[in-house]
Amino acid sequence: MAAQRVVIAIFEGVQSLDVTGPLEVLAGANAAAGSEQYRVWIASIDGRPVRTSSGLQILPDGELAAAGPADLLIVPGGDGTRTTDPRLVAWLREHGPEAKRLAAVCTGAFLLAEAGLLDGRQVTTHWDKCATLARRFPSVCVDAEPIFVRDGNIWTSAGVTAGIDLALALVEEDHGRDVALGIARHLVMFLRRPGGQRLVLYPRMTALDIIGPYEVLSRLPGVSITFVGSGPDAVSADTGLLSLGPKTDFSAAAPPDVVVVPGGPDVAAQLADAELRAWLRSVDEHATWMASVCTGSLILAAAGLLRGRQATSHWLVADRLREFGAEPSPDRVVIDGRYATAAGVSAGIDLGLTLAARIAGPPVAQAIQLAVEYDPQPPFDAGSPRSAPPEIVEYLRTNSHVVVTS
Questions:
Q1: Does some domain include residue 235?
Q2: Residue 307, phi then psi, degrees to nearest 5
Q3: Domain-ending residue, one of 159, 186, 213
Q4: Among 155, 186, 217, which residue terminates a domain?
Q5: Buried b vs exposed e over 168-203: b needs ≥16 C-beta within 10 Å?
Q6: Cα separation of 203 and 360, whole Å?
């Protein structure tokens, strides 16, 4: 595999960590491979050294005009984006579209926006500058919540250190999770810091399907969790004894990093809910994880998100996944790409721990497991049709309506 050509455009007043953070990640990928995977060219508009916002001087490899085509073009931020160099903006306007991937760190998004490269795109930047970016460039869709956002071939990150997160995601796309995780550990970083998480609520859902993952995921450092659904009102769970909410309406919910869809005994209404299915499809493009518990996988499948994928569900209805083009699995938690599905009800806790390990690493997930003292020792070995007494399995098969009605 030929080395990718990476161009980092620097300028007076650039933020040094916006440059060196991604650079360290790419250097880590080269070291992990034992060969040059990323050939980096640091360039200023005229090839002269630039002074960063902290006073550090960076000596570029040359001028931008000599950079040549880039597989990856990185535009850092810094104080220098407040009064932009028109020559740099003109170069970005002409050559930015030629890059296979275009990335902005922190306020580097302002330079891309001024060059007209972010029109109609979903982006982020430093939280303190999001409102300014949205006001100055109304055709750009600005989201203040994510650590980084990918929209097609354009990647943007939040403030300063988030450039490391963005670079790790780029390496993960190119070389896989294990390589990126190794680099993250070396840099003492999460592979993916917890971002915005959306837990779906709807009437007659099973409460434990969402409370199980919530109790785990809410303990991730820096996490932001929002309950979402149709309208703001609380909903009654399937027993009628518990209400959950309030919630944020789908239309007002910011794009998520993680989505969790619970199940319930009767999800016929949700399978036919055009608003819910449309929202799931709309957030699927940018979410890191799309997850479900129990019959929630039928809802993901009905939205067309599990076609051709392995998935699981409650054992009584798992075969119905085939109706939507998914392949049912008997496993308690199934990961297929960025889609995570859990079996019935209590498996939501296992799902939460699995996602926590993928997001923040096994030690963090293990600490959460110990914190919630998740050490199941049930009095019976009857939690699966493979281990339960045959007469109990047959009883529930014959009387499945007491568990699921759709």
A1: yes
A2: -60, 130
A3: 186
A4: 186
A5: bbbbbebbeeebbbbbbeeeebbbbbbbbbbbbbbb
A6: 32
Q: Which domain holds residue 206?
A: 196-391
The answer to whether residues 262 and 120 belong to one domain is no
By the 10 Å C-beta count (0-12 exposed, 13-18 middle, 19+ buried), 241 is classed as: exposed
294 part of the active site: yes
Where b means 16+ CB within 10 Å and e means fewer, 274-311 reads eebbebbeebbeebbbbbbbbbbbbbbbbbebbeebbb
How many Cα neighbours within 13 Å face the side chain of 179? Answer: 21
CATH number for the domain including 329?
Answer: 3.40.50.880
Catalytic entry in 106, 130, 141, 294: 294
**Cβ atoms within 10 Å, residue 268:** 11
- Two structure tokens written together for 228: 């979402």
Asked if residue 228 and residue 347 are part of one domain, the reply reads yes
DSSP assignment of 343-387: -STTHHHHHHHHHHHHHH-HHHHHHHHHHTT-----SSS-SSTTT
DSSP summary character for residue 3: P
Q: Quick check: 289 and 337 in contact, CB under 8 A?
A: no
Please say if the pLDDT value at position 24 is more than 80: yes
- β-strand partners of 328: 311
In this predicted model, what pLDDT tens digit does every residue of 210-269 receive, in sequence order? 999 999 999 998 788 999 999 999 999 999 999 999 899 998 887 788 999 999 999 999
**Peptide linkage before 379 cis (omega within 30 of 0):** no
Residue 222 and residue 163 share a domain:
no
Residue 254 resides in a domain? yes
Q: Which pLDDT band, with edges at 50, 70 and 90, does 42 fall under?
A: very high
Q: What is the pTM of this model?
A: 0.67
With tokens 């002409």, the residue in question is 94
